Amino acid sequence: MTDTGPTGLEQMLCFDIYAANHAFARVYKPLLDPLGLTYPQFLVMLVLWAEAPLSVGTIGKRLGLSSNTLTPLLKRLAQTGYVTRRRDGADERRVQVDLTDAGAALRDRADHVQQCATRATGMSLEDMQALQDQLQRLSAHLLESGRA
């Protein structure tokens, strides 16, 4: 017995976002593998390339990640030699993360990654911006709904 009818997934926005996330992962993986980065590590590096040093808490806020999710990521980035982690002298509870010379230099090798991913979407920059605006509004509404 085969069921060829609709599963209900076709009407679920969350499934389309889930599927798009997996499609993005398939695009990013071959671009990031030569750099020795996973996608979450790449996001951390993007934050640090824009402004470093930063505390673990600040990185977490920018990426929407908790410190217990970030800590293993940062440990692996430190092991690869891309970042350093050190306790803040003014507040021992805070850990500061900074780029090493190798981590800063990696930025040049990673410049093509976002361009390739953008091209892979097949969308115009205007369509991408409109979608991004919609997704940011959606995220804000969902987060607010979760607090209620």
Structural class comes to: mainly alpha
**Could you tell me the radius of gyration in angstroms?**
19 Å
| Topology order in helix (H) and strand (E) letters | HHEHHEEHH
Oligomer: single chain
Distance between the termini: 44 Å
Number of helices: 6
Query: How would you sum up the major sheet?
Result: 3 strands, antiparallel
CATH class: Mainly Alpha
Sum up the overall morphology in one term: globular
* Overall mean confidence score, pLDDT: 92
Q: What's the CATH architecture name?
A: Orthogonal Bundle
Percent in helix: 55-70%
Q: At the third CATH level, what is the topology name?
A: Arc Repressor Mutant, subunit A
User: CATH H-level name... which superfamily?
Assistant: Winged helix-like DNA-binding domain superfamily/Winged helix DNA-binding domain
Tally of domains: 1
The stretches of 5 or more residues where confidence is low (pLDDT under 50) are: none
Order of strands in the sheet with most strands:
1-3-2
> What share of residues are in beta strands?
5-15%
**What is the strand tally?**
3
Please describe what this structure looks like:
The chain is mostly helical. The chain has one domain (10-123): Arc Repressor Mutant, subunit A (Orthogonal Bundle). It has helices spanning 13-32, 39-50, 56-63, 67-79, 101-121, 125-147, and strands at residues 54-55, 83-87, 95-99. The protein has a 3-stranded antiparallel β-sheet with strand order 1-3-2. The model has no long low-confidence stretch (mean pLDDT 92).
